[in-house]
């Protein structure tokens, strides 16, 4: 990926499908992804990495086995590696994800919601 200035809002405007992250940029061995979220995802873990969620707009609930974490605009939460979680949003959420390159959105769960990482134009 070339070193271009990227606008988060413009990137989010270009996304039409929920749960389909797009790479906004990369830094070292990490991808910064934009994603639109609505509905409930799948319970999963990322055994080898933490996952950072930053909400741009909307309200995101990250369900954990020992209680929910609720995020609003400009909130950040890190799901520790190996922690089973299930994001959900009643209404559309726009968010950034920070993850090591190659991280699969469904972690160890796989299934129909597994996305192929898309590049922004």
From TrEMBL:
Q: Which Gene3D superfamilies match?
A: Jelly Rolls
- Ranges where the Cupin type-2 domain occurs: 37-95
- The domain of life for this entry's organism is Bacteria
Please name the Pfam families in this protein's record: Cupin_2
Q: Which PANTHER family match?
A: 16.7 KDA PROTEIN IN WHIE LOCUS
User: What is the name listed in the Swiss-Prot or TrEMBL entry for this protein?
Assistant: Cupin domain protein
Q: Which organism is it from?
A: Paenarthrobacter aurescens (strain TC1)
